[in-house]
Structure formats: structure tokens, C-alpha cells
Amino acid sequence: MNAHAIELVAKAFLAGFIVAVPVGAIGAMCLRRAFAGRLSDALVTGFGAAVADALWAAAAILGLSLITRYVVEHDGPARVIGGLALIAVGAKMIHARRRQLVPLAAEVAAPAVYRWRAWCRDAATGFGLTIINPATFIGFIAVCAGLGLFVSNLDTLMSKWFIVFGAFAGSMLWWVILSLTASAVRHRIPLQALAMLNAGLGIVVAVLGVVSLLSAFGA
């Protein structure tokens, strides 16, 4: 890998990290799962979001205008679907706010089939709620432009894929940091306070869903 490729990956890595940092619905879900002792679920949720971020980066860099135009033109239905999903997830998080903390070893002890189903569901949630959000694409456009990625020498397809890989790695690093931090401090939080925190995270997710619905209907 030459110096130019390393520069592209580094800039894309920074772009992916910056776009992922704002704690929205996915961040709240990762925190909730990590606080509940479900570290692997939190990481897999972040993985799904990072894959979606990488696809949006590919759309921005590779010039997939048909895909991006379709998503932007159908922004309303996407916001409705996403809003309803967020409200449902938020309500579930609030309802399960007092779920007892379990040791991380319990994740390993769970049946393999159950774990794989849970991971697939979590990854799909992270991916789906990120990929239907055009704001992620707009964020990548703004950050990549600010970092000079659009004026870099992208004369080869490999150079563009370096950027996509960097965006995924940067986004995934944020979800790893967020999940591991929450998992590390969860035992230091009293159970009552943790229940209130879980309810608060659920409220954040539900409110974001309501905001998405209102924006879809022009309110």
C-alpha cells in the first residue's frame, strides 16, 4: 500500500468515525444492550450500522446516482418506516428497563442457534435503521468534501474501495469504543439508576421515531 492509499484510508477512517459519533437511535440501542450485559449484541448492532455507513460511503464515492436519487426521492416513506420502527424499539426498551443484569459469560452459555438469530436480528436493526436515513449519506458528502476526498486522485477503482473500507473501519471503531465503555462501567452503576438510564435511552429512541414521523408528514 503506497502513501497515497494510506492517506485515502486515513481520511476515510476519520470520515466514518465522525459520521458515526453523534449518538442517535443506534447509539442508544448499543448503550442499552451493553449496559444489560449483552456486549456481543451491542457490537453486532454497531456492525450492522457500520456496514450501512460503508454502503453510503460507496454511494458517495462511486457515484451511484440512481440509488441515492431513489432514496432521496422516497425519503418520506423511509422516514415513516424508520419512525414506526424506532417507536416500537423505544417502547420495548422502556418496558424492559428493569431487566436483571447478566454476566457476560451467559452470552456464551446461550444456545448457538439462539445467539445467531439474535445477532442476525441486531445486525439487521443496525443496518436497516441506518441505511434508510438519507442524513447519513448527506453527512458523508459533507465530511468527505471537508477532508478533500472528492478532489483526491481517485483514478482507480481500488482507490475508491480504499475509501469505503476506511469509512467502515472508522465507523466500527466508534461502535466498539461506545459498547466497550458502557460494558466496562455498567457494574459501577446502581441497579435503580441503571433502570432509569435504560428507560431514558428508550425514551430517546421513541422520541427520535416521533420526530421522524413528524418530518415525514411535513410537521
UniProtKB/TrEMBL annotation:
The keyword Plastid does not apply. Its main location: membrane. InterPro entries: LeuE-type (IPR001123). It holds the Pfam family LysE. It comes from the Bacteria. Keywords: Cell membrane, Membrane, Transmembrane, Transmembrane helix. It is a multi-pass membrane protein. The chain crosses the membrane at residues 12-31, 43-64, 124-149, 161-182, 194-217. It is found in: Cell membrane. This is Lysine transporter LysE. It comes from Candidatus Defluviicoccus seviourii.
